From TrEMBL, chains A, B:
Pfam family, one: MoCF_biosynth
Family affiliation: Belongs to the CinA family.
InterPro entries, per the entry: CinA (IPR050101), CinA-like_C (IPR036653), Competence-induced_CinA (IPR008135), MoaB/Mog-like_dom_sf (IPR036425), MoaB/Mog_dom (IPR001453)
Record's protein name: CinA-like protein
Amino acid sequence: MISTGEEVLHGDITDTNAAWLSRVLFEHGFSMTRRTTVGDQLDMLAKEIEHCSLTADVVIVNGGLGPTTDDLTAQAAAVAADVGLELSEHWVEEMKAKYAKLSRVMPETNIKQAMLPEGAELLDNPVGTACGFAMHINRAWVFFTPGVPSEFKVMTHGQILPRLAQNYDDVQAKDCHRLYTFGLSESGIGQTLQALKLPEGYELGYRSSLPFIEVKIFCPRGHQEAAHIRQQVITLLGDNIVSFGQPLLEEVADKLVKTDYRLTVCEQMTGGFLVNWLHYSEAVQPRLNHAWVLGEHNIDEQQEPLAAVLAMATAAQENQTHDRQGGSRLILASGTLNEGQVAVALSTPAGTWAQLITTKRRYASRDFRYVVSTVMLDMLRRWLSGKEVIGQYESLQRVGDIYIPANEG
Amino acid sequence: MISTGEEVLHGDITDTNAAWLSRVLFEHGFSMTRRTTVGDQLDMLAKEIEHCSLTADVVIVNGGLGPTTDDLTAQAAAVAADVGLELSEHWVEEMKAKYAKLSRVMPETNIKQAMLPEGAELLDNPVGTACGFAMHINRAWVFFTPGVPSEFKVMTHGQILPRLAQNYDDVQAKDCHRLYTFGLSESGIGQTLQALKLPEGYELGYRSSLPFIEVKIFCPRGHQEAAHIRQQVITLLGDNIVSFGQPLLEEVADKLVKTDYRLTVCEQMTGGFLVNWLHYSEAVQPRLNHAWVLGEHNIDEQQEPLAAVLAMATAAQENQTHDRQGGSRLILASGTLNEGQVAVALSTPAGTWAQLITTKRRYASRDFRYVVSTVMLDMLRRWLSGKEVIGQYESLQRVGDIYIPANEG
């Protein structure tokens, strides 16, 4: 893959297209071997296209198809292929139609976007004015695509992948099963999963994105054995798997909307991290009852953190004033008196669970609030799934825990 | 630059080293022209080093210096330079000393990290066991660096930049003045700043990171004229400049800690985004008095958003129960009854300001909460700076506003 553009080269824009393409190609059975970024210089770009066309089977060039003077990809392609540029009347008509739909006249500058290297095959762009094109240069099949991510993705799925699938019909597309874990280390997971006997064509991948590690099982598309392997991974990693195919928040949301529970959040320690996170789910938002974030001084300094958090949860359970819409109440609370020890609690109609935890490693403040918020959300997931509310997290140390049944509270 | 590693190539890890290096090199007067990522394959990597060594003056190779078998960079360098590997006794002693400090014995596998291409110059790594090295291959000076970002940065500053500065003494390092704007579009800023007459060696750069656009003024290091140009930019962009050289939150934090004000946040609309954001500043945290995030149903549906937010702010101002530590109180509040119109308020001892806004473009829910939180924080910045509290934001539409002096409230 060749990415173009000064802003990408200089790191002002993160090249999300590259990571996305790499993943999509892999899932379709192709493997990206090399990725290059060059700026908006005609000779550099032309040389890069030529260089890649001598070594790769397929080259995907991204960016530089816009109407402005620093968009030089079509010209560079012509140089690399040693051909001229010619006007695609067809694309001019397409662009005029796109502008007409918006009741506007196409600016003259857009004509440039219809100038393609001689002999190039036009690739339709249903969502923009930059058409793509494909051509054979030296040993490679080279595809030229627009830089706007939405346009790039539509073109990859609609134009490029079908052509690759047709031409390389022996390449086997892959399925990817994703499991999200919390509380384990990547090396720990790797060691545990060594016990697996993977069938041919299977591969494991990991992606660490604090505080989760995503385990990916790649297998030939539609393979029967996959469900069996997936179940073995689930058995080996136990209930550190917090969600399947989707992040923890969506997993909790799916379970929560099947109940009539409403959620209250008290975040003395996590400082709004959890309630902000919960707002990312449109399904959870209407279930949020009330949330508050206390300043440090609002926790009773005479109490132990565990007792203080229990008091917070109890107070929230008893405070009905803001709870007009009814429904049973769930409370998640976090509190700390010093940075090291953190108490978290889940209060339900069946009783209240609280635990006191410390970390084994040193986290930045934001990361630590993320980890603690994850423990809270995981307690809720466990309770909604009928599992033990207090989990085992290898990366955290549990100093104490307590359960108070509702009738004793 | 050549980055190595399957995880970077496949997008499982974002290559932050590349963006960072590009920026740092630019500030030192060097310009990155090409960046390539290859996986952990010996032949691919060796070919890439060779290819770059024939075209560039300086090549920086990042990653693949670890102790494991898929770390192949030293071997690839040797292949590219057509030399053998030899043991650096010096680095073995260094590594042994590092382990001894931790009361541990160096594992045998680490010996690999002291195997360098013949004739390479060792680059010290004071913060890890992977030493770097430099060598001349074909026309290029090639530097090999560890992939761990903290180690890479230390080595770049301590070893590579001094060597480059000494060798290319005609290259002029640059200063970079950063200004953060809010409420303007990148094209709008570009047009406004066309009025500037930039002296030779000056350059403007933009970096858009929603909801801010960072304006960068690059100029020759220590240039007197810079302050004058910077002032012109400030005049042209007016009070859409929310901070200088640091993000808005730090700017507000600097002003807030010079007062004895404490801050209360009521986030019906922003859903905890603001209080979570405020927690990113260690200086602001102890100034947070109380914060709450209401569920949708907690705002009085009979009221207009502006009236409802004023009521929230007033209630917060009157509610002294959680305010044990004294100090004057500032309140920031947000509320909405439908997704389109949002009311925000700042209440101070001098009076209360509120405004009702809508957006001109469609934002994702998270982005919109970020934009509204930024308006709130900017109101606070303006008040703390003695400016008009209600700002003009080109990208937002103000539907109404109100000011209620304290003695009338």
